[in-house]
Write a structure and sequence with these properties.
globular, Peroxisomal Thiolase, Chain A, domain 1, alpha/beta, 2 domains, binds coenzyme A
């Protein structure tokens, strides 16, 4: 059985937070943020908007493009590190919002690699015959776990969601998922993590809040180096597995964390800038949502040449990393 991406969708909050806005919140500057990260602005959820809100909207748009009804979906995989609640899964809430009554639904925790991990699971469900039509979603409201007084982290992240419909198919004429590859390296889990609200620093213990142990924490410099190496390794694995070289790739959609990470990865791979899709200047790092948002924008803008090879590469906390190769 072959695997095909038949629809893409994305949803972003309407509220924009610019670098100039951040200058009024913390000791930072547009020049610093732009030169160190490439980010100019990010979207921020407002009251009444949750991870499920954006996930469901992105999924509706992907379903519309695929021409699929919610009841046809037999699996919903939602990558997120900012679920609506620790439980039940946000995927179950999205199932309810969509009316996808025939779906099994679960969340997936792989940080910024959540979408690629989700695609990998979807691929395996389809190849094994366990599912036919799957929604893979990445959705985050990171603005609710960052410390808005910490300039090292608060300037980097944003909110939003992206989704794809993945289907079983006999043919290989277009949008065929060629392979997915996933990796983990747990020895560096504490370089990028949310300190509180789990069982180590529970949200039910007042000290978690009082001592500031609730927020996202990151060793930016270390993460940077691992990210470049991890994305390169994942990209090379995908190329090798399909007997391809960088010259066979018409578009790279990398995880949108930092322009300098993307540039360094592209340099190692020998990929020129016009073959890389970038939208991080508008959204910042939206973790698991970053690749599916970029994929949806690239698709709707006609940036992906029919019949060409599209490579997606992710890296995130865990560490987790991975890649997916699609013949569009
Ligand atoms: N505005 C102004 N100055 C800032 C700042 C901000 N928002 N954030 C940090 N600084 C300061 C630091 O305090 C430090 O000052 P000091 O030298 O007086 O101590 C200085 O800038 C340099 O910090 P450094 O950490 O060396 O900068 P950097 O060039 O490594 O850039 C990151 C920092 C976070 C942008 C960079 O390390 C990075 O992008 N890392 C990867 C993060 C990421 O993408 N994570 C997610 C991956 S999935």
């Amino acid at each position: 059985m072959n695997v095909k991406i038949t629809g893409t969708g994305s949803a972003l909050p309407g509220k924009i937070l610019t670098n100039a806005d951040l200058e009024r919140l913390v000791d930072t500057s547009d020049v610093w943020i732009t030169s160190r990260t490439g980010i100019k602005e990010r979207r921020i959820a407002v009251e009444g908007e949750y991870t499920s809100t954006f996930a469901a909207e992105a999924a509706r748009r992907a379903l519309a493009m695929a021409g699929a009804q919610p009841e046809e979906i037999d699996l919903i995989i939602l990558g997120t590190v900012t679920p609506d609640f620790p439980f039940p899964s946000t995927a179950c809430i999205v199932q309810d919002l969509l009316g996808a009554t025939n779906a099994t639904a679960f969340d997936l925790s792989a940080a910024c690699s959540g979408f690629i991990y989700g695609l990998s699971i979807a691929e395996n469900y389809i190849r094994s015959g366990s599912a036919k039509k799957i929604l893979v979603i990445g959705s985050e409201v990171l603005s609710r776990i960052v410390d808005w007084q910490d300039r090292n982290t608060c300037v980097l992240f944003g909110d939003g969601a992206g989704a794809v419909v993945v289907e079983a198919t006999e043919d290989t004429d277009c949008h065929t998922l060629l392979s997915t590859h996933t990796f983990s390296n747990g020895s560096h889990w504490n370089l990028l993590y949310q300190q509180g609200s789990g069982s180590r620093n529970p949200a039910t213990d007042r000290r978690t809040i009082d001592e500031g142990r609730i927020y996202l924490a990151m060793e930016g410099n270390d993460v940077f180096k691992h990210a470049v190496r991890g994305m390169e390794e994942a990209a090379v694995k995908a190329l090798d597995a399909n007997g391809l070289t960088t010259s066979d790739i018409s578009l790279l959609i990398p995880h949108q964390a930092n322009q300098r990470i993307i540039d360094a990865t592209a340099k190692r791979l020998g990929l020129d800038a016009n073959r890389i899709f970038i939208n991080l200047h508008r959204y910042g790092n939206t973790s698991s949502a970053s690749i599916p948002i970029a994929l949806d924008e690239a698709n709707r803008q006609g940036r992906i040449t029919p019949g060409s090879n599209l490579l997606m590469v992710a890296f995130g906390g865990g560490f987790t990393y991975g890649s997916a190769l699609v013949n569009w």
